[in-house]
Amino acid sequence: MTVPMVRARGVRKHFGHLEVLKGIDLEVRQGEVVVVLGPSGSGKSTFLRCVNHLETIDGGSIHVDGELIGFEASGGRVRHLRKREITRQRREIGMVFQQFNLFPHFTVVQNVIEAPVGVRGEPRDQARERAHALLRRVGLEDKAAAYPRQLSGGQQQRVAIARALAMRPKLMLFDEPTSALDPELVGEVLAVMKGLAEDGLTMIVVTHEIGFAREVADRVVFMDDGVVVESGTPADVLDRPASPRTKAFLSRVL
Amino acid sequence: MSLPDVDVDVAGAARTRHPLRWVASIVLLVLAAQLVSLLVTNPNFQWDVVARYVNAQIIGQGIFTTLLLTVIAMAVGVVLGVLLAIGRLSENPVARVACGLYVWFFRGTPVLVQLVLWYNLSYLLPEISFGVPFGPEFVSADTNVLITPLLAAILGLGLNEGAYMAEIIRGGLMSVDHGQTEAASALGMSGARTFRRIVLPQAMRFIIPPTGSQVISMLKATSLVSVIALADLLYTVQSIYNRTFQTIPLLIVACVWYLMITSILYVGQSFIERHYARGATRNAPQSFWSFLTFRRRPTPEVPS
Predict the structure, then answer these.
(1) CATH of B68-233, one of 2.60.40.1120, 3.20.20.70, 2.40.30.110, 1.10.3720.10
(2) pLDDT score of B125
(3) N or C: lower Cβ tally within 10 Å for chain B?
(4) Rounded to the nearest 5 degrees, what angle is found at the Cα of A143, between the Cα atoms of A114 and A150?
(5) A149 in contact with B at a CB cutoff of 8 Å?
(6) pLDDT band per the 50, 70, 90 thresholds, residue B292
(7) A biological process (GO) annotation for this entry (chain B) (predicted)?
(8) Taking a C-beta distance cutoff of 8 angstroms, is the pair B279, B300 a contact?
(9) Highest mean pLDDT, choosing among B91-105, B132-146, B284-298
(10) Who's near B53: CB < 8 A, 6+ residues apart?
(11) B contact test, residue of A108, A150, A155, A185 with most B CBs within 10 A
(12) Domains of chain B: which residue ranges?
């Protein structure tokens, strides 16, 4: 049996008195595309941010490719990892944000090569060549010299995807990647993501795009109020939801 | 009530009159005329004396000291400011409080007092030594020998500047969107690299304009060192007019040079601002070199 790409067990997280995650169990197999749905405030974005340790979890555990994230367990004792080691773990996990978060003072191609050159020590020429290939893949090779603010939202998000892919991640996290986009720009970003899914990349996608979930997801997870309410194939969760909470949510968004 | 005349054409409409603008303009022009007439007709300006001294070698030496002091004190201030700003934003509460107290003290006391204090440090500490705290000493020196007027000036101006720069830099760092740090973290960049490559360059846009003003203030603040007998531009002209009693013309010489240098600084600042504005607007900024060589600015790229 192969190691699951992500294995979350009883993940808990609170901000002050507010308990945001109340024990999340989730497994993602290698090459699987999991779409996480749920109303806002359900904890789905927080969970995603826990997977690459942008948020420190308060209980439970998250393993990515067999490695415990953010902590080290040995001899029955658990301790927090040092920043250096957390940084090393994050290199294997790509993330795409709702607000793109491109580096505005760098051109598009500089955005893409910054981490491979600066963090992985890749030769600049080689990184540049690969960056152009990645930009071609997201359909933006002609924008390599532009600055992010000169691009539309959809183009910026596609650059952000190329930037994350440049680190050759084994797992990609998408945090509402189309929520900040004008409706007519959503399609171009989803098309790129669909391509990645078809190439076998392991992806966790937090989104409100039910159509994308139905078409691309191997599995749909519905979260509400800090717990996983149900999980299954798109057809099961979207067409034959077992829980009344899922039904209520779907009737609002469909 | 009659229907409005829909066939009206507003082309060639009469302009609105602004009589008050005319009055204000005339008053200002009269005042300007008076000033020019004063400058030309009043013999006490002694323009011939101004002309004689404005290029004098001794004035040049004063200018050199003023510029040297500005550059060194500003460099001390910037380095100190970066460290203090990082300290104030750090997660270490002791560092936060210590840096906060530093800023409080150095911004809360006049820089003139600080200068005189450093100059007279020997009254407080006759000897300065390095060694283990509360333990043995390795090197020690007489404070009066160690603290020359130049060092006192650098300490006084630089340490004071550090407190102001700390606040400017802290404000700049805080103005960078937190999403930038998160994106860098998610790419596996270290904290130091994120600061150097992502946060600081973007903060520079907010740091440069007030820092430019600080440089200009510093240039003028160096004139305070004349009280500790350091031969800067002001002290040099003072030492001349104390002999010749040509007070006004020599002060004009000093003003001419201060104005000249600040004008150059203004131009330099505007180009540094443009450099750090790259990516901030949709139009690419014109670089200093393309300005010098009269190249046209590139046409802005229109998002498709």
Answers:
(1) 1.10.3720.10
(2) 81
(3) N
(4) 90
(5) yes
(6) low
(7) amino acid transport
(8) no
(9) B91-105
(10) B59, B237, B240, B249, B250, B253
(11) A150
(12) 68-233
Amino acid identity, position A185: L
Interface test with A, best of B178, B185, B187, B302 (most A CBs within 10 A): B187
Residue A1 amino acid letter: M
Distance set, CA B31 to CA B28, B35, B130, B280 (Å)? 5, 6, 62, 43
Which pLDDT score, from 0 to 100, does residue B209 have? 86
Residue B301 has pLDDT above 90, yes or no: no
Calculate how close chain B gets to A19, using CA atoms only, in Å. Answer: 22
Distance separating alpha carbons of residues B198 and A114, to the nearest angstrom: 10
Q: A22 has which bridge partners?
A: A12
Q: Are A205 and A35 in contact (CB under 8 A)?
A: yes
User: Shortest CA distance to B95 belongs to which of B107, B106, B84?
Assistant: B84
Please report the sign of the dihedral spanned by the C-alpha atoms of residue B112, residue B115, residue B119, residue B123.
Answer: positive
pTM given for the model:
0.79
Structure tokens at B130: 């390095």
Whether A212 contacts A241, CB under 8 Å: no
- Residue A36: CB atoms within 10 A of its CB come to 26
- With vertex at residue B95, the alpha carbon angle to CA A72 and CA B88, rounded to the nearest 5 degrees, is 100
The distance of B1 to chain A (nearest Cα, Å) reads: 49
CA distances from A164 to A101, B60, B198 (A): 11, 57, 16
